[in-house]
Amino acid sequence: MTRLTRATLTPARPRHLHDHDFCELFWVQNGQIRHHLPQGAETLDEGDIAFISAGQSHALQGRGAHALVVSIAFHPDLIAGLAARHPAMQGQLFWAQSGYIRKHRGIRALAALNHAAGHLERSSCDTLAAEAFLLPLCAELIDQKLPTDMPAWLSDACLAAKEPEVFRNGSAGLVARAGKAHPHVSRMMRKYLGQTPSDYVNGIRMAHAARALTTDDEPVAVIAAGCGIPNMSHFHKLFREAHGMTPLQYRQQFQRQLVQPR
């Protein structure tokens, strides 16, 4: 079961919290809301996205006019299956011990999320469609679990590398954000992450490419260029290493022709 709804929230304070037997993903599409939880209330702004496990209690309240929320309900068996097949998700997002995780998406990322939601909404909303929506999103949002003793300048650079304007420039983009010499950044990344700057950035690029392949109809060459990799041979090599198949195979497996001719 996968169900998508859009709701404009009123400023009336909810009378009580509610719980449900499904996992819920929702984000603030427009305006600002108050998110009520057992431990208190918090304010969510446009672009904030929440992952709520089954059985958790909460309630939503609009703040001001035009507070719009998009919500998607997923069957808990689907969510459990993803964690079983992708151990890196354990302890994060839907699978966090707290049962609730909040993230944020910028303007461009929010637009891509809504585009993907539109594809899901027009689909049969079966397991394949739900996973095609969720996997790229989760791959982008899961924390890299950066070591707590990593220098702050390196942690900041690694987080900044998730932004398109940074990862399009490859390892040079990350190094520029770090503000240190490339050899020093490389040594420190090997020490703390066991990766080179290029390996780290290419992982982010391939997660971005996977999302684009399942939500956009742009040619693979355009998506590759958007990742900052115009060399198609190199792009195919990196994508196959990351996802076990070619970009075209990935698109054919996860993207459906959802809009029917009239």
Entry summary:
The chain has 11 helices and 6 strands. By secondary structure, it is of the alpha+beta class.
Main features:
six-stranded antiparallel sheet, 262 residues, 2 domains, 6 strands, 11 helices, Jelly Rolls
List the helices and strands and how they pair.
Blueprint (H helix, E strand, L loop, with lengths): L1 E8 L13 E15 L2 E6 L2 E5 L6 E16 L1 H10 L14 E5 L2 H16 L4 H15 L10 H9 L3 H4 L2 H9 L3 H12 L3 H19 L4 H7 L5 H12 L3 H8 L8
Antiparallel strand pairs: 1-5, 2-3, 2-4, 2-5, 4-6
Can you walk through the features of this model?
The protein is of the alpha+beta class. It has two domains: 2-141, Sandwich (Jelly Rolls); 152-254, Orthogonal Bundle (Arc Repressor Mutant, subunit A), CATH 1.10.10.60. It has helices at residues 76-85, 107-122, 127-141, 152-160, 164-167, 170-178, 182-193, 197-215, 220-226, 232-243, 247-254; strands at residues 2-9, 23-37, 40-45, 48-52, 59-74, 100-104. Strands 1, 2, 3, 4, 5 and 6 form a six-stranded antiparallel β-sheet that branches. A hairpin with a 2-residue loop joins strand 2 and strand 3 (40-45). The relative contact order is 0.11. Mean pLDDT is 89; it is low at 257-262.
